[in-house]
Sequence to fold (156 residues):
Amino acid sequence: MKKDLLTEDEVIRAVINYLNTKGHTEVRRVVHRSDASKKEHGVDLQVKLSNSKGNGNNYFIEAKGNKRADGAPMRSSANTNFRWAISQIILRITVDSTKNNYIYGIAIPNSEVKGAIKLIENNWALRHLKIRLFGAYRNDEGELFAIEYCPRDIYN
Fold:
């Protein structure tokens, strides 16, 4: 796969597009979506996927792109951006995700996922926090989409 250069907003849109196709969910609601150009604080993306009874999962996603809004590549390395995203998502964890159906993740361009997994695959804390990765990319039609990497795909 060629290296995808995506802005943070494109990465967020790719994850939303992916989550809109996930499972047998009846209700898909974007609770919060930040705008990188406005330098908003808080989690970049919060999505609630639920059934007709309201039971389901809450996704909390930190996103990092590898291209600035003006189209230029990021000055900082993918490794640095990913480490920053790890610290941001860890600070967002306020409850036990397994008891509350909260899913925490980091979304990055899919071309950066291999390096990210290499960085965290042996990390005991991230494995137990069940931090997921989402790899954003453009499909053959040019649409933004993502791949979800679950803990079993990431951690040793």
About this structure: The beta strands are 27-33, 45-50, 56-63, 102-109, 132-138, 144-149. The chain has six helices and six strands. The chain has one domain: 8-154. The longest strand covers residues 56-63.
